[in-house]
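request received
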Amino acid sequence: AQSVAQPEDQVNVAEGNPLTVKCTYSVSGNPYLFWYVQYPNRGLQFLLKYITGDNLVKGSYGFEAEFNKSQTSFHLKKPSALVSDSALYFCAVRDMSNTGFQKLVFGTGTRLLVSP
Amino acid sequence: DAEITQSPRHKITETGRQVTLACHQTWNHNNMFWYRQDLGHGLRLIHYSYGVHDTNKGEVSDGYSVSRSNTEDLPLTLESAASSQTSVYFCASSESPSTDTQYFGPGTRLTVL
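response:
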C-alpha cells in the first residue's frame, strides 16, 4: 500500500523566514501527491498537488512543493512565513487497491508555528 | 456558492446509543468520503461512496455504516457508540476519487461517554 510520512510533529519558524514542512512517500508506480492545510476548528483545505510534469508545484497562499523522485520526497515550502500560516499541514498520496478503488492516504500531520 | 456542511458540529452521547452524523454537499460531486481524525493518526478513511446507492468500507469501518440515497447526502451512523469512537469526523467530496481536490466539511466533534 502507498503511504506518506511526515517526520516532524511540529515546525517552528520566525515570521519572514523561509519554511519547509517535510514529507516522504512510499509508492509503487507514479505517485500522486497532495498537501492540505487545516486551520483551527476547520476542515482541511487543498493547497497543491503533483500529478505529473514540473517537479516544482505552486499552490495557494504562496506555498510551493518540490517533488524529488530520487529522495522520494515532496516537501512543502514557502519563501517567507507569515504568522497566519500557523496551522496543521497534511501530506497525502493516492492509493489504488487491487479492485481499482482510489483513495487518499494522509500523513499524521505537522503543526507549523510561526512566531512574530 | 457550493459548499459541504456537517451537522451537528458538536455531539455528546452515551455508550451504546445510535448516533447519526449528517453530511450535505452542493457541489454535485459523485464521490463522498467520511474520515475520522485522531491525534497521532492523521485522517483515516471510514467509508466512501462513488455515487447513489454505492457504499464501500474504508480502513476503519467497524462500528460505522453509511447509506447514499441521493447525490447530496452521505449520513454516517454509529450503530452502538463506543468510547473508542470519540473523535473528530470529517466529510469530504470530490469529482474524481483521487486526482481531484477533495472538499472538506467543517467537522463534527463527537464525544462518547
